[in-house]
């Protein structure tokens, strides 16, 4: 990619604390112009970077808890028609299955499998089957407890969604998690589409199984393709956000892939990596 534009942003105002670093980046990138978009974001235009300089700037920003995004050209939000999001650890701060497992006293065991799957070290269908099996016999009321007591939206999620919805973009929540939570997110956030796994419940208790097929990486990709086809658009008109290895396939077909608080394997392959700022940080890229 030919880099012509850099956007640097932080959780805290960047113009004071990071002034020396920002000045160094401006000089090394040979930026023709710089503009503060707001207290938290700076845009550099007309930059000229080789791979070594870009790698150095990425590391400098990461060390300073700043997010930096390189773009070949300015993009408008109106270039896109759909925002597709993973749920667990992307739209929301928790992994729901880990918190459900906590009700069984099994969070460490389940969380270990979750982490391995998200790093890409374990095939997702196998990992989900193993994790759900550990929940067998748990009272289904535990799901509501997780929703009420532990589920929180990620930083900037509501601001980001409000902006994209006002701009006329449709929204899709596609999750390797469970419909119990995606259904509630759809209603709460006025999302257009959701797709997730269905936990089997009999006599008020989890059976340790899911109903139907598992929403793995391939199914996530197919879901993005299906929703785009229904909308009459192509996947390159979609912004896709995720954090785990099972999000990579749907991210790769998108017009803009956003890795949010993501595993290294995902950060390395995404167009945008938001490691520190909220989901609304994507708005500064347009």
Automatic annotation (TrEMBL):
This is Phosphoserine phosphatase. Its cofactor is Mg(2+). Keywords: Amino-acid biosynthesis, Hydrolase, Magnesium, Metal-binding, Serine biosynthesis. Gene3D superfamilies: HAD superfamily/HAD-like. NCBIfam families: HAD-SF-IB, serB. InterPro entries: HAD-like_SerB, HAD-like_sf, HAD_sf, PSP. It comes from the Bacteria. The keyword Hydrolase applies. Pathway: Amino-acid biosynthesis; L-serine biosynthesis; L-serine from 3-phospho-D-glycerate: step 3/3. The lineage of its organism: Bacteria, Pseudomonadati, Pseudomonadota, Betaproteobacteria, Burkholderiales. PANTHER family: PHOSPHOSERINE PHOSPHATASE (PTHR43344:SF2). Its EC number is 3.1.3.3. GO terms for molecular function: hydrolase activity. Belongs to the HAD-like hydrolase superfamily. SerB family. It catalyses: O-phospho-L-serine + H2O = L-serine + phosphate; O-phospho-D-serine + H2O = D-serine + phosphate. It is an enzyme of class 3 (hydrolase). It comes from Undibacterium rivi. The keyword Metal-binding applies.
């Amino acid at each position: 990619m030919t880099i012509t534009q850099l956007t640097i942003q932080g959780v805290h105002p960047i113009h004071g604390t990071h002034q020396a670093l920002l000045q160094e980046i401006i000089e090394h990138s040979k930026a023709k112009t710089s503009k503060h978009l707001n207290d938290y974001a700076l845009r550099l235009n007309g930059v000229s970077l080789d791979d070594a300089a870009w790698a150095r700037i990425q590391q400098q920003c990461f060390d300073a808890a700043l997010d930096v995004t390189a773009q070949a050209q300015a993009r408008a939000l109106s270039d896109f028609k759909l925002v597709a999001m993973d749920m667990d650890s992307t739209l929301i701060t928790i992994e729901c299955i880990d918190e459900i497992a906590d009700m069984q006293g099994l969070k460490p065991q389940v969380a270990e499998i979750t982490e391995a799957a998200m790093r890409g070290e374990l095939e997702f269908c196998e990992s989900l089957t193993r994790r759900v099996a550990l929940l067998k016999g748990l009272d289904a009321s535990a799901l509501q407890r997780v929703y009420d007591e532990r589920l929180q939206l990620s930083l900037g999620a509501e601001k980001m969604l409000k902006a994209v919805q006002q701009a006329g973009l449709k929204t899709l929540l596609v999750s390797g998690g469970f419909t119990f939570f995606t259904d509630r997110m759809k209603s709460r956030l006025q999302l257009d589409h959701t797709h997730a796994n269905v936990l089997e419940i009999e006599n008020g208790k989890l059976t340790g199984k899911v109903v139907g097929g598992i929403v793995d990486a391939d199914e996530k990709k197919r879901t993005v393709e299906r929703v785009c086809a229904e909308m009459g658009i192509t996947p390159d008109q979609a912004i896709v956000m995720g954090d785990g290895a099972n999000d990579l396939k749907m991210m790769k077909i998108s017009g803009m892939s956003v890795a949010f608080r993501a595993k290294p394997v995902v950060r390395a392959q995404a167009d945008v990596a938001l490691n520190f700022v909220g989901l609304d940080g994507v708005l500064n890229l347009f």
